[in-house]
Amino acid sequence: MHEGSMKAWLESSQFAGGNATYIEELYEQYLDNPQSVNEEWRALFDQLPSVEGVEVEAKHSDIREDFKAAAKKPHRGQVIVPQITSDTKQVKVLQLINAYRFRGHQHANLDPLGLWKQERVRDLELSYHELEQDDLDKPFNVGSLAVGEERLKLKDIQSTLVKTYCGSIGAEYMYITSTEEKRWLQKRLESVQCKPNLNQSDKVRLYKELVAADGLEKYLASKFPGAKRFSLEGGDALIPMLKTLISRAGEQGAKEVVIGMAHRGRLNVLVNVLGKNPSVLFDEFSGKHDETLGSGDVKYHMGYSSDFATPGGNVHLALAFNPSHLEIVNPVVMGSVRARMDRRNCPDGSLALPITIHGDSAIAGQGVVQETFNLSQTRAYSVGGTVRIVVNNQVGFTTHNPKDTRSTQYCTDIAKMVQAPIFHVNSDDPEAVVFATQVALDFRNKFKRDVVIDLVCYRRHGHNEADEPNATQPLMYQKIKKHPVPRQIYAQQLIGEKVLTEQDADRALDEYRAALDHGACVVEEWRPMMEHSVDWRPYLNHDWDIAYDAAISLERLKSLAEKSSAYPDNVVPQSRVKKIYQDRALMAKGEKPLDWGFAETLAYADLVDSGTRIRLTGQDCGRGTFFHRHAVIHSQKDASTYMPLENISDEQATIEIYDSVLSEEAVLAFEYGYATAEPQTLTIWEAQFGDFANGAQVVIDQFLSSGEVKWGRLCGLTMLLPHGYEGQGPEHSSARLERFLQLCADHNIQVCVPTTPAQVFNMIRRQAIRPMRRPLVVMSPKSLLRHPMAVSTLEELSDGVYHNVIGEIDDLPAEQVERVVMCSGKVYYDLYDARNKGEIKNVAIVRLEQLYPFPQKEMEAVMEKYAHVKDFVWCQEEPQNQGAWYCSQHHFWDVIPTGAKLTYVGRAASASPAVGYLAVHNKQQKELVQQALSV
């Protein structure tokens, strides 16, 4: 076909207007499989021009653009009314197939209550595609419709489409750009018209799982009337859905499954999926609590672990603990799964499955959902895809109108940002639920991507059992009151199919209730928990002052320093980076004192060489926000990367350093989940600026500070938060030290403010070497990274001790001291410099390097020689209502002599963390230093 013929063909009537889209689809089918289109179209496509030396794919892409251009191009001359030929009809049939794939879900039977008012979708009507009743008995080529036949009568094509896309499952996937993924989904859905292959025993088991879901709720309601339980009633199909997911995952090779969910249905999942002993749950309802377990938490926040028998062997289950902040548990689950993947050397997620269970309003309303979707395909946070289940009650707390809860048709539309397929399914059709679950898991396992199941159901009671839903949703709850429970609906179906008798159905109810009365586990698949997870026993029951040996020889330090400052000749660093590494080579030889970045690097080098894995993430953490770390060298020659820390020795442990997505909340929650599942790895998150931790405050409040006392969850996560007043304005000064100190109690976290490279070296190593796993919050420096006085020698690093308190370093006779200034952080160097310049001999300066747990004994030892001093000062850069003053002054009073006075010196109380003008900042800084030193 020459060029003129090609243009004429493209401008013909059959390519006009809306037909072009469908021709493109037909052409893609041809590219995928030439035999999938009829002979006439195949002949036309076979004649498409090729260009010598140009790949076929590139030319086909151009042709698709020609289709679009031709459709938009106005036709010159006489308007031709196209005749409806057999070829045109064939195109219209393909249009119809495409329409059902795109929009069939909008006519699906999804709402068990029948309240959804779906708009008419004309695309699904024959007349819209210029097809008539007379065409129903005519055979047409089915294109890529996965029915196992090349041609079918139109009525059979339409029947297949309606059953597949407009039944109890509404599938959304045509926005996916991958043709392979779309073809796979079409084959799975269309070949069986969305019906699972269930035998009689499968159906009986499915019925019993619905009996269990309903039976537990009824039992709790009668035994503990009025108690909050966030009942699953209406969403009962969640139980068979989860058991199907776990069993099929195990059959396909998974060894661990981690589940995250909010309140609704949690107690049901604990008892009927994870196998929690019902008698233990009943004791919790009765208020029994072991006081040795910390403060504890409400029943519907608690997690659990067990093993579950599957056709592929036992699978370890973990239901994550979570607070009421709903969606925040999702990145925690993903982090826990990533840790398990790393422990099992599983890069693709095939051995560990994350399942997150959402509420319909929460998944649409809470921003951390978007953040976790965005994490899903990144290097640092991928977990091989998450199966996301929405328990869609159609009611947000007490709200009913979807216009008040979201701006999209479906609550799941957020998932389209990562092209995750979405299966909306009517929860009153348990067999459809099972099928959607099977397809969802298989998609996740094949393509390693997120997938969403929208379980459209209802909530039989209010938000909790004490709530009155009729006040705000009268019509819905009138309908719910009359609506049979899923167990009853399915029982009638099975009785009609002769799978069950009424006596069989009633017997299952009686047997389940008897099992609850007996108080034993009601999950047949439950197995005693084996050692699927890491052994936490070495990290239990340790105090802060536990003895540990972290000394390191100078020879070893020098060897590590040489290796961590070397790179191959073919790696070409940027000029400033090259200078940093040249300086490090001199530091390794002892010819130059060590700076902050190299001391930190040496800590990592020592740990990985000793067998400790390291995971460091944060925005620009490979380079370091302040151009100080450069653990990852980017070659100027070819943009390749090189990490000296990966090349310390042949037997070293793994170190991973990832620049994170621009998120704090989801990323910190992910790292928390990682650290709670992997105590043998030093897990570090670095904020770009310390105050950016504001965006992760939920994680800090709900997990880091209180997870141990609420849930007994140990966590050794380290947070590096750049902090220090450098005149950079309110948003780049403070890591909000006061907020962390307000959260300090029960020895729950460590808050450190190191001031020397030796201190950071030994602080990092202490966190990994000491057999105790609690969060470490570091107010890390900015200007001290290059401060000429903030340097250390190799000898200072080698003692292996992090000094919680550093006393006066100059040889000031103690008897001459009239004032002792206590401080933390960068302000020390301002005080020290001003004191030396002013030749002040009667003021001693004591650095507090760990603010919590407060080092009482060490401070008392330092203060012992100042027993005669009556004038003590706490000096800080932060405003008086911020920083350490208000939260820690009771500790300061405890360590100064009786009768002495304690004075605050620092900035005045302020609503803002810092001033915005450098000149004002410098004036304030000079005044507070002078005031602290003026006796």
UniProtKB/TrEMBL annotation:
PANTHER family: 2-OXOADIPATE DEHYDROGENASE COMPLEX COMPONENT E1 (PTHR23152:SF4), 2-OXOGLUTARATE DEHYDROGENASE (PTHR23152)
Keyword DNA repair: no
Name assigned to this protein: 2-oxoglutarate dehydrogenase E1 component
CDD domains to which the protein is assigned, alphabetical: TPP_E1_OGDC_like (cd02016)
Entry's EC annotation: 1.2.4.2
Domain spans labelled Transketolase-like pyrimidine-binding: 594-787
Family in the record: Belongs to the alpha-ketoglutarate dehydrogenase family.
Described purpose of this protein according to its UniProt entry: E1 component of the 2-oxoglutarate dehydrogenase (OGDH) complex which catalyzes the decarboxylation of 2-oxoglutarate, the first step in the conversion of 2-oxoglutarate to succinyl-CoA and CO(2).
Cofactor: thiamine diphosphate
Keywords noted in UniProt: Oxidoreductase, Thiamine pyrophosphate
Organism: Catenovulum agarivorans DS-2
GO biological process, one term: tricarboxylic acid cycle
Lineage, broadest ranks: Bacteria, Pseudomonadati, Pseudomonadota, Gammaproteobacteria, Alteromonadales
Taxonomy, superkingdom: Bacteria
GO cellular component: cytosol; oxoglutarate dehydrogenase complex
